[in-house]
Amino acid sequence: MDKMMTPTKTESSEEWIEIADLEVKSKIGVPDKERLEFQRLLVSVRFQIGRGFEELQDQFAATIDYGAVAVETQRIAQNGEFHLVETLASEIANGLLKSFPIRTLELELKKFILPNAKYVSVKMTRRR
Question: Does the N-terminal or the C-terminal CB of the chain have fewer CB atoms within 10 Å?
Fold first, then answer.
């Protein structure tokens, strides 16, 4: 029974770390006027690390620091100026994959721009 519940290294693992609706600020928008001030955006990041959670043996050094992932996400959003949400999402994904040993990354970026919609979002998945 235990063998059935513990995935081996060769099996596909569905273990994820998720940061939901992280608030970031960015100068973003097609019209110049829209990029004059920082806008509030929400970013959700879901990622897999290179090993199963059981293999971490409760060692912080064996995982990816989600606090550092959040800080890097905020830094990328705040330090750039973007026309498209698609570009910002891609920049965040590329930066996270460059900075951390993430195996699979799912990202959603929400922008609050349309008056009759809750938000507009873009979603992407990247794999190594």
Answer: N
